[in-house]
Amino acid sequence: MKTFLTLAWRNLWRNKRRTFITVSSVMFAVILAIIMLSIVNGFQERTIETVVRQDTGHLQIQDVLYLDEPSLDHSFEDGEEVRNAIEPFQDDIEFTVPRIRGFSLAAKDMVTKPAMVTGILSEREDRMNKLSTFIVDGAMFSPDDNYAVVAEGLASMLNISVGDTLVLIGQGFQAMTAAGKYEVGGIIEFTIPEQNNTMVYLPLSEAQWYFAGENRLTNLILMIRDVERVHELAAAIQQNLDDEWYRVRTWDELMPDIVGLLEMEEAFYKIMVWVLYIVIGFGIFGTILTMIHERKREFGILLSVGMKRYQLGFICFTETVFISLIGVVLGLCLGFPIVYFLHHNPIQFTGELADYMLNFGLEPLYPFSIAPDIFIYQAISIFIITMIVAMYAVRKIFKLNVIQAARN
Question: What is the residue extent of each domain of the chain?
Answer without folding.
Answer: 2-52+258-407, 65-242
